Amino acid sequence: MSEAPAMRELLGEDAPSNWGKWGPDDELGCLNYLDASEVLRGIRHVRSGEVFTLQIQMGRTEPPGDPLWPGRSPMERRNVLDESSWDKPDAPQYPGGLHYSDDTAQIFLQGSTQYDALGHLWYDGKLWNGYDARTTVGQMKKASVLPIAEKGVVGRGVLIDMARHRGKPWLEKGETFDHTDLEAAAQAQGVTIEPHDILCIRTGWLKYWYQLTDREEFYKDFNEPGLTYSRELVEWFQQREIPNLVTDTIANEVTYEPNTGVALPLHCALMRNLGVALTEIAWLDDLADACAADGRWSFLYVAAPLKIVGGTGAPVNPVAIR
Ligand code: UVW
């Protein structure tokens, strides 16, 4: 198999951690930073009243379909009642001649724009805040998506457009950047990444996906572009008290850390160890165009993931208001 080091070896025995910071029962992690004053700070960044919905469409049938992590399947929406159903002899009858349509849907909770539960990924048998990984068996009993959904996520969002900063429509497979690149892009955009900002990063990767007609191309040597692990980057997140990382990729970070080949170490370093909430597969292109047009890169960010009991994640349609 792989010669990659164990996650613990890469991140270090003394990896930066926020376990215990909000008590032994915490299931919100860095979202605890988003208090009422942060809501008001976000509201102060609304100027023009433009609204951007950041979810992608679910269940598209035309190619290339829904962007998915390998092994996940697209939403299966099935119509179980339509106008043809009401002619059938066993169809229910409602006074007044009422007819209606009904659908069911089978979905991967991580199969669209979504919030990961803080306990969605782990290593060494422990989830966020030190919860035992066996609490995931059957249904997540700790650090599921439900506490995030009950709270809601509201604050000042800031968008860093890495693709635009690098003069490309989208970053390439496996292309990386780190906190120093984020700071440089922010400076070029004329915006500051402030403590407690909801950090949104555009790579253009969804734009790349939607212009593909051949899904094979996407999954060949699958390696998304994105943030890459370093201890300094993790400390940067911890010191800035970033509550939530939002990107337009399926997994918010380069798939394989380039030096070691370890898969998704930032999920572990940021989400499992620090409690940073992760929002993935967000459509940021229209928002980015509007921000670039008038040079305002901060906004009110509002997201309410679905309240799925024990969910490993939940679909969401975040809203950015400028
Ligand atoms: C995995 O679950 C592997 O990734 P994500 O958090 O992107 O869904």
Short descriptors:
322 residues; alpha/beta; Glucose Oxidase, domain 1; nine-stranded mixed β-sheet; two-stranded antiparallel ribbon; 10 helices; 13 strands; binds acetylphosphate
What does this structure look like?
One of its GO terms (biological process) is L-tryptophan catabolic process to kynurenine. InterPro entries: KFase/CYL, KFase_sf. It holds the Pfam family Cyclase. The protein is α/β, with parallel strands linked by helices and 322 residues long. The chain folds into two domains: 272 residues, Putative cyclase (Glucose Oxidase, domain 1); 31 residues, no CATH class. 23% of the residues lie in helices and 17% in strands. The chain is built from ten helices and 13 strands. Strands 1-13-11-5-7-9-10-4-12 form a nine-stranded mixed beta sheet, with helices on both faces. Strands 2-3 form a two-stranded antiparallel ribbon. Bound molecules: acetylphosphate.
Tell me the layout of helices and strands.
Layout: H1 7-11, H2 36-43, E1 51-53, E2 76-81, E3 102-106, E4 114-116, H3 146-151, E5 153-161, H4 162-165, E6 176-177, H5 179-189, E7 198-202, H6 205-210, H7 215-219, E8 226-227, H8 231-240, E9 244-247, H9 265-272, E10 277-280, H10 285-294, E11 298-303, E12 313-315, E13 319-321
Parallel strand pairs: 5-7, 6-8, 7-9, 9-10
Antiparallel strand pairs: 1-13, 2-3, 4-10, 4-12, 5-11, 11-13
The chain binds acetylphosphate.
How many helices? 10
Oligomeric description of these chains = single chain
For this structure, the CATH topology of the largest domain is Glucose Oxidase, domain 1
CATH C-level name of the largest domain:
Alpha Beta
Largest sheet: 9 strands, mixed
Average pLDDT confidence is 97
Q: Poorly predicted ranges (pLDDT <50, ≥5 residues)? A: none
What is the structural class? alpha/beta
> Strands of the largest sheet, in order across it?
1-13-11-5-7-9-10-4-12
Q: N-to-C terminal Cα separation, in Å? A: 48 Å
At CATH level 2, the architecture of the largest domain is 3-Layer(bba) Sandwich
How many independent structural domains? 2
Radius of gyration: 21 Å
Amount of helix: 10-25%
Secondary-structure element order, as H and E?
Answer: HHEEEEHEHEHEHHEHEHEHEEE
Compounds present? acetylphosphate
InterPro entries: KFase/CYL, KFase_sf
Organism: Thermomonospora curvata (strain ATCC 19995 / DSM 43183 / JCM 3096 / KCTC 9072 / NBRC 15933 / NCIMB 10081 / Henssen B9)
Region (Disordered): 1-21
Protein name: Cyclase family protein
